[in-house]
Write a structure and sequence with these properties.
Helices cover about 70% and strands about 5% of the residues. By secondary structure, the protein is mainly alpha-helical. The protein folds into 2 domains: about 90 residues, Rna Polymerase Sigma Factor, Chain: A (Orthogonal Bundle), CATH 1.10.1740; about 100 residues, Orthogonal Bundle (Arc Repressor Mutant, subunit A).
Length: about 200
């Protein structure tokens, strides 16, 4: 599988760095996945998905993580999210894609980022959410991707984007509102509780 991942990288230095990361963290990632999936085959699939996604889409971000601790945290977080998404996908196998589910999200500003992402992941595939984030304009795409997908703190995200923390926080709030619209999650203005309807159209 390593050869497949390396095929997506052109630079020899990048290939060597990817290989170093692969051999340094793969075992820890497998242990994380197995603790959630309780199955080695599924765990290997989860870890493979993480590495493939890195090679295909996220290499620029991963290759610029200088701290070993930050890199380890990123890889384990990505593995955890992938494993949880696999479980959720299996649970949704028997759910109609046209089902409309209502959630009470009365104010995005007051919802923690974990709760926000967890609510979306409950009814929408993780990869769909990531693709929706990537479709946003640069200002909102980068801040949501770094903070929600890569699990960087607000301060780390602000530093990476070379902007202030207050600006980053505002972009997160506005970006999440924009993301909801893209995912066809619309507030019901006539409902006092401001329920949000999630219509799955894919």
């Amino acid at each position: 599988m390593l050869a497949l991942y390396l095929a997506y990288l052109d630079d020899e230095n990048d290939k060597q760095l990817f290989e170093d990361i692969y051999y340094s963290y793969r075992k820890q990632m497998l242990l994380m996945a197995e603790s959630i999936l309780k199955n080695m085959n599924d765990s290997e699939d989860a870890v493979s998905t993480v590495f493939l996604r890195i090679a295909q889409k996220n290499w620029d971000v991963v290759s610029n993580i200088k701290s070993d601790t930050d890199l380890r945290n990123y890889l384990l977080k990505a593995t955890k999210n992938t494993a949880l998404n696999m479980i959720k996908s299996k649970k949704k196998d028997n759910v109609s894609l046209d089902t409309i589910v209502e959630y009470d999200i009365s104010g995005i500003e007051n919802i923690s980022d974990d709760s926000f992402l967890e609510t979306l992941c409950n009814k929408i595939e993780y990869d769909k959410i990531v693709e929706a984030i990537k479709s946003l304009n640069d200002k909102y795409r980068d801040v949501l991707y770094y903070h929600l997908v890569l699990d960087l703190t607000v301060s780390e995200t602000a530093k990476l984007l070379n902007q202030s923390i207050p600006t980053t926080k505002k972009q997160l709030v506005r970006g999440k509102k924009t993301l909801l619209k893209i995912l066809e999650i619309n507030g019901d203005n006539e409902n006092a509780d401001k329920q949000i309807r999630i219509k799955k159209s894919f």
